[in-house]
Amino acid sequence: MSAPALEVVCAAYAYADGTRALSDVSFSVEAGGVVGLVGPSGAGKSTLLLAAVGLLSVREGSISVMGLQVTKKNLKQVRDRVGLIFQNPDDQLFMPTLYDDVAFGLLNQGVNGAELDLRVKKAIAERGLSGKEHKFPGHLSGGQKRLASLATVLAMEPEVLLLDEPSSNLDPRARRKLIRQLAALDNTRIIASHDLEMVLELCSRIIVLDQGRIVADGNPRQILSDAALMEAHGLEKPHSLIPHEHYHG
User: CB under 8 Å to 61, separation ≥6 — which residues?
Assistant: First the structure.
């Protein structure tokens, strides 16, 4: 049996002020799985993603990516396998040009020369951003910035892709484009989002977090249709799951 793409065992984390962000969180995701991570603001979704790439260290328990435990010693190998798309693209795009941004992670992996050029251009083209290589990322539209962030991470060919609120602040057209791009990937994807319609469309499983604990884990349609569960954890049943009454004027 191959190791799970992501395995979280009894993970706990508290911020410096004592706020518990994660409490006894355990789950595993098989390679190729697409899992939605949902819950109210402050539920611990972002904390979990940051811990999975080693930007935070869990106080108790463990997190492993492709069988490698996320520890200081393993950090480089872990980050070759897992990529995180931040909630705010401006946190991901900090170089003078889009080309430089996409090249940045590859250079850190030791890729250079003709291979670097090929992989940078391919990642940019696959996100539909050809011709913008030498543009300052700050001048891209919101949707283009989101796709540019995706290009910076996918160029590094991670096996596991973590996305923090990928559709936030996007207009409907940019959101649809992003959903199509995410659906076409074959990496393991873990998507933390308040956009439950997107989660319903992309994910074959969802995990509901509230106050740092898992309160539900299973079939998205089943869980998101449970109005009482949604209400209890600060969420709303997606419109597409509400039967539409016929209006008789």
Answer: 8, 9, 10, 11, 12, 24, 25, 26
pTM: 0.93
Give the rounded distance of the alpha carbon of 165 from its chain centre: 7
Q: What is the pLDDT along the chain (249 residues), one digit of tens a residue?
A: 678 999 999 999 998 888 889 999 999 999 999 999 999 988 999 999 999 999 999 999 999 999 999 999 999 999 999 999 999 999 999 999 999 999 999 999 999 999 999 999 999 999 999 999 999 999 999 999 999 999 999 999 999 999 999 999 999 999 999 999 999 999 999 999 999 999 999 999 999 999 999 999 999 999 999 999 999 999 988 888 887 655 454
* Domain ranges across the chain: 6-93+160-241
CATH number attached to the domain at 6-93+160-241: 3.40.50.300
What is the residue-wise DSSP string for 131-185? T-TTS-GGGS-HHHHHHHHHHHHHTT--SEEEEESTTTT--HHHHHHHHHHHHT-
CA distance linking residue 171 with residue 152, whole number of Å: 22
